[in-house]
Amino acid sequence: MSRSGTMDGGQGRAMIRRGAQPRRRPPAKGRARKKAPARSPFASLPPPVVAIARKVANYALVALLIGGVAAGVWAMRLPQMVGTAAGEAVGRAGFAVKKVEITGIDRMDRGPVEDAAFSAQELAMPLVDLAEIRGRLLQQGWVKDARVSRRLPDTLVIDIVEREPAAIWQHRQRLHLIDADGRVIAQLRLAGTPLPDLPILIGPNANYQVAALDRLLASSPQLKPMLDGATWVGDRRWDIRFRSGETLSLPEGEGQARAALAEFAERDGTMRLLGQGMLRFDMRNPGRIIVRPAARPAADQASASVRPATDNGEERPPASTAAADARSI
After folding, report:
1. 296, 321 in Cβ contact below 8 A?
2. pLDDT above 90 for 214
3. pLDDT band at 144, cuts 50/70/90?
4. What interhelical angle do 111-118 and 130-138 show, nearest 10?
5. Which residues of 237-308 form beta strands (DSSP E)?
6. pLDDT for 174-193, tens place per residue?
7. How far is CA 152 from CA 14, 96, 132, in A?
8. How far apart are CA 164 and CA 180, in angstroms?
9. Within 10 A of 273 (CB to CB), how many other CB atoms are there?
10. Are 234 and 240 in contact (CB under 8 A)?
11. Is 15:24 a contact under the CB 8 Å cutoff?
12. What was the pLDDT predicted at 92?
C-alpha cells in the first residue's frame, strides 16, 4: 500500500490516497501424496535367484515364439513340400524305381506282391514309402513277414517269409488252409484242385487247436501217419478220424485224451483194431473201449415182413444194426 501526501486547496488538509488492494494468496492446498511403487514379486528373493528367474522367463518367451513360428511353417506343409521337391530332383538324376526284385516266394501267388511293389514304380527312390509297402504285404494270408529295402540306384528289393501250412480247416462248408497258429492262409476250392496232404480239422474254433492236436498225437507217434482228420466237438474234445475209415471218440481234457489215445495205440499194436471193418471206437468212458462195427450189407439185414407198429399205427423202423452190435472190449 502506497501513500502520497497532497494538500487540499484552501483548507490545508492532507489527503491520503490508498492504492489498489493487494491480491490475497489462496489458501495453501495440501500436497498430494505420491503412491508407493508396486512391490516386485522378486523383491524378497536373493539377487542371484532373481537373475536366474529372469533368464528363465526370457528363454521361455523365446521358446514360445520359436514354437509358434515352427507350428505355422508346419501348418503350411513347407517341410513336406521341400522334401518332395528334393526327392523328385534325386529321381530326375536317375535314382528312381525301375526294377523290383522279389525273393522268398515258394507257394503263394506272385500277383499280390507285384501289385504292392509296382505301385512304387517310377517313383524317386527317396519318396518310396517302404513301411506302407510292407504293411500291404502283411495283409496277405501267405505272408508271415516281409522286408522291403532300396538298392541304389533303381531297384526295390522285397524278401518274403511265407507261412507254413499245417492243416485244412473245414468250416461253414468251406475249406481253408491254415498254419500252426490257426491263421487262415488261403481258401481252397472244393472241386477241380487236389487238396494238400494235410489233416482236415472240422468244427468251430478247430483252427485254433492245431497245436493242441499236435501235442496229442505226439504222445502216440505211431498213429500220426494213419490220421485223416479230426473234429473238435463242442469246443471241448476230439473225434479222431483214421485213413482206414474208423472214428475214435476221446474224452474231454488234454491229459485224459492223451492217456486214452496212448491206450488205443497200445491195443491196436497187440489186437490190430484199425482196418478191421469197425465204424467207431468210443473211449469217453475211462477204462473201456466201446466198439461199433460198420453196417452190414443190405442182404444181411433182411427183417421180418411184419414190423412193430408205433402208437399212431405207423411202422417202426428197424433198429440200427451197428448200434445193436456195439460191444465193449
Report:
1. yes
2. yes
3. very high
4. 160
5. 237-242, 247-249, 278-282, 290-293
6. 999 999 999 999 999 877 77
7. 131, 9, 19
8. 8
9. 20
10. no
11. no
12. 43
DSSP-assigned letters across all residues of 83-144:
HHHHHHHHHHTT-B--EEEEE--SSS-SHHHHHHHHTTTTSBGGG--HHHHHHHHHTSTTEE
47-75 vs 78-92: helix crossing angle, rounded to 10: 60
Sequence ranges of the chain with CATH classification 3.40.50.11690: 165-328
CA dihedral (12, 18, 19, 20) in degrees, to 10, reads: -150
Q: Residues spanned by CATH 3.10.20.310 within the chain?
A: 94-162
Cβ-contact 261, 219 below 8 angstroms: yes
The amino acid at 262: A
Residue 148 host element (H or E): strand 143-151
- Residue 327 has what pLDDT? 74
Which CATH code, of 3.30.420.40, 3.40.50.720, 3.40.50.2300, 3.40.50.11690, is assigned to 165-328?
Answer: 3.40.50.11690
Cα–Cα distances in Å, from 292 out to 248, 264, 324, 329? Answer: 11, 15, 9, 11
**SS3 assignment, position 186:** strand
Of 198 and 319, the structure prediction assigns the larger pLDDT to 198
The rounded distance, in Å, linking the Cα atoms of 124 and 56 is 46
| pLDDT single digits (tens) 105-135 | 999 999 989 888 777 655 787 778 889 999 9
Q: Tell me which amino acid residue 104 is.
A: G
> Taking the model in full, what pTM does it have?
0.61
54-112 confidence digits (pLDDT tens): 777 777 877 777 777 666 655 655 554 544 444 444 444 445 878 889 999 999 999 98
E strand segments, 10-63: 14-16
DSSP 192: S
The answer to whether 174 and 156 are in contact (CB under 8 A) is: no
Distance CA 20, CA 102 (A): 122
CATH number of 94-162: 3.10.20.310
Cell of 118: 509296382
